[in-house]
């Protein structure tokens, strides 16, 4: 009997390997060659190598090893159960960003679609594209200027509650509190910390479960993420319903937050978003902006602790702005425009520690790239590190040098923390504001030192210091 089961198992493995072989090694119709590279183990491909370089803190190793071995332009691999090609460097970025919906389209691992089902249930791909086009209306600089004072107020409250009168703090968890509190206020006018907390727990279950193994079984992180996403979406729908009636009765202001703005804005055909669409858009913004911006804030604190000269430059700029304000006057758009050096520093931080490592696309047709054939259906990946840490693009790539961003800055498609093309991060300007407001309060209030001088960095999937970056605070004398 045992022999029977062993034979069955061998047969199964053989069949799986053969089917994978035929799927992965399918020659394109014209007999042209696929990009060089290897597809790794059956089923899991090179996913483990891909993830483990991140766990060890140097995700770029996965790419640079293969670029050196196979091709610096494009190489073949297999990730997350899919045959894939990695497009490298500025040319690879440019190609993927500028061929959106022509040769490629956005692709997410199946877990993401299961956690966010409604965008595919309530709207067709066409509808979803239309809705995606509306996002910049709410998040462009002109629309966000009115929220800068509000951001300043939340930052003041955040620093008073989390940083002031403390000897030591854990920066990563505080950064998450800051970005989440800010988002709750700016998106849906939730400001009371208790109400924010009500969302925070399910939200962190969602954020941590969304990219886990998609096993939907009671108790798995993935199952908890689905439940949390349903809970948050329901709560958001209730808030949206209430707001709609408050706006109609004049009890709410059309400019009080992004939710009011969304409810009162129609597309070019005069069509308004329905409640589920708005709930999904807001949930997407909360997810898109949470771990990314808090990772950026955390690494800013880390680099400023390590580089006193850079700290001094940021401090000088921010103190000048603080001195130019009347007592109690909030930060405004003009102040933000003066924070040029601080933003160059933030950009250099995101070059060295990009919050998002890259993203997937899917080939929607067979096409050629750099002499290699890319079959329809393959998953394609752009990687920020493949240009950010390339010495031909950024000389001495591991040196912290904010002057790289002076003048016209890096060449197009080389510095891509926010992606590019039609799918470029719609929250880029919002992120710039929240990061600069954070830096303003941070440096005008404190100097600090790292408690663990050589704390390990983990990238899973965002970069963070393993122990959350504990720092000892030294407040400036008033
Ligand atoms: C430092 C902070 C941030 C970084 C580095 C970042 C980075 C990115 C990148 C690289 C993409 C594009 C992925 C692709 O090519 O497919 C993206 C997409 C996105 N980001 Fe951000 N992001 C940040 C902050 C934010 C914020 C604050 C928000 C919300 C206010 C946001 C909302 C989104 C959304 C909704 C998408 C998906 C857009 C789509 O469906 O096309 N992000 N982000």
Descriptive account of the structure:
The chain is an alpha+beta fold and 478 residues long. The chain has one domain: Cytochrome P450 (Cytochrome p450). 54% of the residues lie in helices and 11% in strands. It contains 19 helices and 12 strands. It has helices at residues 2-24, 47-55, 60-69, 89-98, 110-115, 118-122, 125-139, 141-144, 148-162, 171-188, 193-209, 221-248, 258-263, 275-306, 308-323, 333-338, 340-352, 384-388, 428-445; strands spanning 74-79, 82-87, 104-106, 168-170, 358-363, 367-369, 372-374, 379-383, 446-450, 457-459, 463-465, 470-475. The chain has a 5-stranded mixed beta sheet with strand order 1-2-8-5-3. Strands 4-12-9 form a 3-stranded antiparallel beta sheet. Strand 1 and strand 2 form a beta hairpin. It is globular. The site of protoporphyrin IX containing FE has 23 residues, from helix 7, helix 14 and helix 19.
Helix content: 40-55%
- Report the span from N to C terminus: 81 Å
Shape: globular
Major sheet summary line: 5 strands, mixed
The strand order across the widest sheet is 1-2-8-5-3
Number of helices: 19
Q: Strand-residue fraction? A: 5-15%
CATH class annotation: Mainly Alpha
The secondary structure category is alpha+beta
Whole-angstrom Rg:
24 Å
GO molecular function: metal ion binding; monooxygenase activity; oxidoreductase activity, acting on paired donors, with incorporation or reduction of molecular oxygen
Main location: membrane
Protein name: Cytochrome P450
Family: Belongs to the cytochrome P450 family.
